[in-house]
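re: ur question from yesterday

yeah so i grabbed the chain u mentioned. its 252 aa long if i counted rite. heres the sequnce exactly as i have it in my notes:
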Amino acid sequence: MTVIDVSEAQFETEVLARSAELPVVVDFWAPWCAPCRQLGPLLEQAAGAREGKVVLAKIDTDQNPGISQRFGIQGIPAVKAFVDGDVTAEFVGVLAPAQVEAFFDELAPSETTLLLAAGDADSLRRALELEPTNVEANVRLAELEYRDGDSDGALARLRDVAGSFRADGLVSRIELEAANGARPQLAEAFAKLDAADHQAGLDVLLGELAAAQADSANRERLRKVIVAVLDELGVDHPIARESRRRLAAALY
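ran it thru and got these structure tokens back, copy pasting raw so excuse formatting
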């Protein structure tokens, strides 16, 4: 059973003892609490997606004041995760659905999360059967398709993916290769990036960007490829910091 109602008398067995077998997430709530009614279905959905891997225990704080006092509950909804009898994670208030999923993933990864961790093409396709709009799965599968020579398939997969620098960068790379043929500078840049020589690859791309003043389409594609690389490196990476400055200078 994924979701159970627990009283003070049952807490030792249904929460603390059970948490030695699998994680138990406790939802401290009350019927009069509007935020509790908002959060509850999100918790139940996340727990249901992890059937057999996690239990959600709901405790009515009005009916069980002793447990609330024992764990210092001062505001609800309050959520605490128990593993081996100890609180290992917690939050207070309402979280966004993605944040609730991430909270549960730390305790018991969903099937989609496990498939993404596997990362092979079959696993990614299975993840997309479960979540067709999953951005990470679509982008990673498109990257595999591109590396296998299926540029058209990668483009089709990424056509409706929004909000991903990696997706935009891959689409722009494919378009650059199609528009510029075997241009040696671009081939060199992409080979360097594929070999994880980010500095050398970015140097070539930034040079191409500066030289493409009259070609607005290619400039935008080059910008998106560069931004995707910078996003992959992260804000604090020294190469990213310097390249971001050079990108701004080339654009403005």
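noticed a couple things. The chain has 13 helices and five strands. also The longest strand covers residues 86-92.
anyway ttyl
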